[in-house]
């Protein structure tokens, strides 16, 4: 059973209705044109025959002044049959002298007294007059009349086209048209039905594909279609499926990474706590293991805090509190925080003695977190006795900040992964076991939240440099 709300049903119904209405309009036009043509042709033919009858009767009256009526009856019947109309011979007194006996539809006119007003309009040339004979007929008809001289007085030949003949002609035309219309309509409906199935087939295919995606099958791919609209929709659908597959992979990877990052410190904490409780750890070593437990707890706290920050940024819940401040403010504050580690590694800090003031239009707290994460990463990988340098540029409404540290650098493979969640290089795992691998991902998210961009470049054995841009003024002003 066809669903009446379906696109297939509506499209099929509309197309069928349009064709049906077109046939009705065409039939009406055809009926009007054919009727007018028939009437015009009959009138012209009747004018010609009325004139011939008048000439013939005029000659007969002159040749047979005493016995002309019998011959006139025969001639009128013959002409009436040939022209397919009723012919009347009317005297000058308005009475019907002779009437054709072939068509009985105008029988009342045989006893009609034609008015002098009607007869006065007739001349020796055929004239067309529309009349109902003062109500004798139910509707107005076309009459063709002519005046002629016979054996003395004036006579009139009046012709009336047969309505029955016209009706038969019209009926035949309409029967042919109706039969043709039914055949064409059936063929059209079959074509529309097949075309509609073809048009709606891609929609059904997309609907089935959407259901598969809803069930978690993201490997579905729609083929190319002949129609450009469907092809564009299929391309967008395939892109959506690919994106969903990527997001699903990232989600699974995220869950796996989170589970791993949570499980590792929790396992350590649980093991050491069990050791303390069952006295397998001697009293003199308890403080040592309690410090390890504290470190692991702080690690869990950082992980949860970082995940919450990412969730707020991605959900749009975190809104920056924009203000204007110097880019040196968060940098100097962060360097003071890492002063001890910088001294231990004998790191040379360069590029902060700038005479020009570079301002930022951003959230000071969020940018402080960006600088903190980037400097923490730089200090982690800078070589002993190496350097960390800063450089600043203004490009339109953006301030570009460069932070470079000397050291081993990163490979091309590592460069493409440094901003991924929970990614740690092998060097990072060996240097800092307490990191959670979310620092650079948070940096990228915060900078993107401000409308900026961040990039990284590195040369193996020489340096690693992070470049990021932030607004230096309110661009809405």
């Amino acid at each position: 059973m066809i669903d009446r709300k379906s696109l297939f049903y509506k499209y099929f119904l509309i197309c069928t209705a349009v064709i049906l209405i077109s046939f009705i309009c065409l039939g009406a036009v055809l009926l009007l044109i054919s009727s007018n043509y028939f009437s015009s042709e009959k009138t012209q033919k009747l004018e010609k025959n009325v004139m011939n009858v008048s000439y013939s009767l005029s000659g007969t009256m002159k040749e047979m002044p005493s016995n002309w009526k019998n011959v006139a009856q025969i001639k009128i019947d013959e002409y009436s049959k040939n022209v397919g109309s009723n012919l009347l011979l009317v005297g000058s007194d308005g009475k019907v002298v002779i009437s054709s006996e072939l068509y009985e539809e105008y029988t009342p006119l045989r006893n009609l007294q034609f008015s002098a007003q009607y007869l006065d309009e007739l001349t020796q040339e055929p004239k067309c007059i529309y009349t109902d004979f003062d109500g004798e007929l139910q509707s107005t008809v076309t009459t063709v009349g002519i005046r002629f001289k016979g054996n003395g007085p004036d006579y009139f030949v009046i012709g009336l086209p047969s309505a029955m003949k016209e009706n038969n002609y019209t009926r035949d035309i309409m029967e042919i048209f109706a039969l043709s219309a039914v055949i064409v309509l059936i063929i059209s409906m079959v074509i529309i039905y097949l075309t509609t199935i073809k048009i709606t087939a891609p929609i059904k295919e997309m609907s089935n594909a959407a259901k598969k995606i809803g069930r978690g099958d993201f490997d579905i791919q729609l083929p190319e279609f002949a129609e450009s609209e469907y092809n564009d929709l299929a391309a967008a659908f395939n892109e959506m499926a690919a994106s969903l597959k990527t997001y699903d992979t990232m989600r699974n990877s995220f869950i796996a990474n989170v589970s791993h990052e949570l499980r590792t410190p929790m396992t350590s904490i649980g093991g050491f706590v069990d050791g303390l409780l069952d006295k397998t750890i001697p009293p003199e070593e308890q403080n040592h293991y309690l410090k390890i437990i504290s470190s692991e707890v702080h690690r869990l706290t950082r992980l949860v805090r970082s995940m919450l920050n990412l969730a707020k940024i991605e959900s749009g819940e975190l809104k920056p509190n924009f203000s204007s401040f110097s880019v040196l403010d968060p940098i100097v504050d962060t360097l003071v925080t890492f002063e001890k580690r910088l001294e231990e590694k004998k790191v040379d800090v360069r590029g902060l003695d700038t005479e020009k003031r570079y301002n930022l239009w951003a959230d000071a707290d969020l940018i402080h977190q960006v600088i903190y994460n980037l400097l923490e990463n730089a200090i982690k990988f800078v070589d002993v006795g190496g350097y960390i340098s800063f450089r600043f540029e203004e490009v339109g409404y953006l301030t570009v900040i460069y932070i470079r540290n000397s050291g081993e650098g990163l490979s091309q493979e590592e460069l493409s992964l440094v901003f991924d969640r929970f990614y740690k290089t092998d060097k990072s795992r060996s240097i800092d076991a307490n990191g959670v691998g979310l620092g650079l991902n948070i940096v990228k998210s915060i900078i993107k939240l401000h409308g900026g961009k961040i990039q990284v470049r590195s040369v193996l054995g020489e340096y690693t440099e992070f470049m990021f841009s932030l607004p230096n003024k309110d661009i809405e002003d």
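The chain has three domains: 7-167, 228-314, 320-471. The longest helix spans residues 7-63.
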